[in-house]
Amino acid sequence: MSTAREQPIFSTRAHVFQIDPTTKRNWIPAGKHALTVSYFYDATRNVYRIISIGGAKAIINSTVTPNMTFTKTSQKFGQWADSRANTVYGLGFASEQHLTQFAEKFQEVKEAARLAREKSQDGGELTSPALGLASHQVPPSPLVSANGPGEEKLFRSQSADAPGPTERERLKKMLSEGSVGEVQWEAEFFALQDSNNKLAGALREANAAAAQWRQQLEAQRAEAERLRQRVAELEAQAASEVTPASEKEGPGQGQSLEQLEALVQTKDQEIQTLKSQTGGPREAPEAAEREETQQKVQDLETRNAELEHQLRAMERSLEEARAERERARAEVGRAAQLLDVRLFELSELREGLARLAEAAP
Predict the structure, then answer these.
(1) CB 89 within 8 A of CB 14
(2) Region of residue 316 (phi > 0: left; psi between -120 and 50: alpha; otherwise: beta)
(3) pTM for this entry
(4) pLDDT for 236-253, tens place per residue?
């Protein structure tokens, strides 16, 4: 095929597919990578063609006629039937914008081809309709998945032997249901990922809060132990002060019983005097301090009990969050496995179709 007399008026990149000529239901990819697809105008014959070259052969060589129709079957996939080539071409684009640009250019070329045919039939002078089409080169877009568009797994040819309206509606419904199903799977997968991320964040926050509560509990326990030691010291000091500070030596063996009794009475009076003068004022503040310390100890023990209760509640919440995270992980794993199985089945189907195509005479 020579394009020396033809000029490109629009180019883009897309994954190219052709309908299976045997089943008229499945798409056969032209390659694993996106190819350049261009509109060409032949000024000599006044015709428009869509051409795509893969290696050393033409993957697409379709002459645009006024009765052709380019159909968008999804946000990134479009197709048209070529009755002359007895096939249906499909293009998978990287974005909806590229698909829209290609579809708009198809409509312009189709209208130009119609005007050229009308003028040719009227016998008037042929003017170049390509002058009204602005050359527009689209930079290569990022490649879509090598597996091709998943939405267009089933489709029947729109060529001369195309099925009736009822069959087309049924196939469109199947395509729509397949597309909706895959979109729902993808949405559920991303929702599970988002839920997993939220649960991971909540788990990290719960771990940090639990660590903080543990630190506070250890500090409260240390403070309670210090106060208990202080109470023990105060009680020991009070007991030592109640006991007489010292005992004087008793009278000699030769003293009489009366002298001993008088001496005991004198000492008792001194003890009572000392207690009234010194013992009372000192015992009162110490007793008050002990009571205050004991009250603090009781308050700290109550606070410790509350902190332990909160810690147990936090640990239960942490365990529940961990269990919920594990359930979310299991659901994400099941969803990923289902997606892997569907991708593997699609890959096996394509390999089988490729082998059938190679084995066909």
Answers:
(1) no
(2) alpha
(3) 0.37
(4) 877 776 555 444 444 444
